[in-house]
Amino acid sequence: MRALILLVAAACFAFGADDPWIKVKALKSGTELRIYKKGSVTPIQALAADATDDKLIVVIKKEQTSIDKSEIDRIDSRPSATKKMTKTTTTTSVDPTLQPVKGVRPEDYPSQSSSTSTSWSSNNVPFETIYRRETGRPAK
């Protein structure tokens, strides 16, 4: 009896592993998506909201909408936690004793100078394909 239960559990797990839509249903809210609809070359940029067995609910430009699973060719995702900004600040100082003197008066002597620059960069992880519509297999 126990072996039968394990066999059924393994079959259910294997069946679920073959369904690519499971990854879509497991998306966290706020995940950045690129959705390719049938016949379209340009993807829709959106944020994941929820997914059911036959629809993907997304936020596009602050508006929530749903897209039928049958209309989707491919979905690429990038987790929201990967898009972080990094601040880099660089300070450069000039030693006045290494500068040439332009005269004998105190105001002719070089003074301490420094410059500071700040730059921001994003640590984006590339998109990865999580769903691709299954195409019919050719008959033999």
Features of this protein?
SH3 type barrels, two-stranded antiparallel ribbon, 6-stranded antiparallel β-sheet, alpha+beta, rod-shaped, 140 residues
What this model shows, in words?
The relative contact order is 0.17. The chain is rod-shaped, with a radius of gyration of 29 Å. By secondary structure, the protein is of the alpha+beta class. The N terminus is likely disordered. 16% of the residues lie in helices and 41% in strands. The protein has two helices and eight strands; from the N terminus they run ααββββββββ. The strands form two sheets. Strands 4-3-2-1-5-8 form a six-stranded antiparallel beta sheet. The protein has two domains: 76 residues, SH3 type barrels (Roll), CATH 2.30.30.100; 33 residues, no CATH class.
Short summary of the structure?
The chain is an alpha+beta fold. The protein contains two helices and eight strands, in the order ααββββββββ.
Binned strand content = 35-45%
Nearest-angstrom radius of gyration? Answer: 29 Å
Question: H/E series, N to C?
Answer: HHEEEEEEEE
How many helix segments? 2
CATH fold label of the largest domain: SH3 type barrels
* Terminal CA distance: 40 Å
Largest sheet: 6 strands, antiparallel
Total separate domains:
2
Mean pLDDT: 78
Main sheet: strand order: 4-3-2-1-5-8
From the spread of the alpha carbons, the general shape counts as rod-shaped
Which regions are unreliable across 5 or more consecutive residues at pLDDT < 50? 1-16
CATH level-1 class of the largest domain: Mainly Beta
Would you identify the CATH architecture of the largest domain? Roll
Multimeric organization: single chain
Helical amount: 10-25%
Number of distinct beta strands: 8
Query: How would you classify the helix and strand content by structural class?
Result: alpha+beta
